[in-house]
């Protein structure tokens, strides 16, 4: 009986969100950490031995998964700040803001699609640039 009640009251779907209140708590640090992780995983992937050992294949699969998860996290965090926090006055102060966000999410997608050290470095740099823009709005 109790199980049936719990099953009926349980949410039918799980929803994830930063905060649509809005809470006013934004910080690009998580995007920066995720971009650093992407770059580190690419470096580690490129350093793997060129063999077909099971341990190498296992490490490869795990590193690719982490790289892709963190590239997605970059996109999510940057888009949340851009969409929920940034205002017209921020765009006036930084007219290249929309282009910066567009380039950043495109680089994150490129990092998911490949194992490219140059793209990973560009992603980290773009996220760092975005963070500078964000922190400039706070002063």
What does this structure look like?
The structure is a single chain. The protein is mainly α. It has a single domain (26-138), classed as Nickel-containing superoxide dismutase (Four Helix Bundle (Hemerythrin (Met), subunit A)), CATH 1.20.120.400. Helices cover 75% and strands 0% of the residues. Helix 2 runs antiparallel to helix 3, helix 2 (29-47) packs antiparallel against helix 6 and helix 3 (54-85) packs antiparallel against helix 5 (97-113). It is flat, with a radius of gyration of 19 Å. The relative contact order is 0.16. The model has no long low-confidence stretch (mean pLDDT 90).
Topology:
Layout: H1 2-9, H2 29-47, H3 54-85, H4 88-93, H5 97-113, H6 117-138
Helix pairs in contact: 2-3, 2-6, 3-5, 5-6
Keywords:
139 residues, mainly alpha, Four Helix Bundle (Hemerythrin (Met), subunit A), 0% strand
CATH architectural group: Up-down Bundle
**Major β-sheet profile:** none
Shape by Cα distribution: flat
Write down the domain tally. Answer: 1
Class computed from helices, strands and strand pairing: mainly alpha
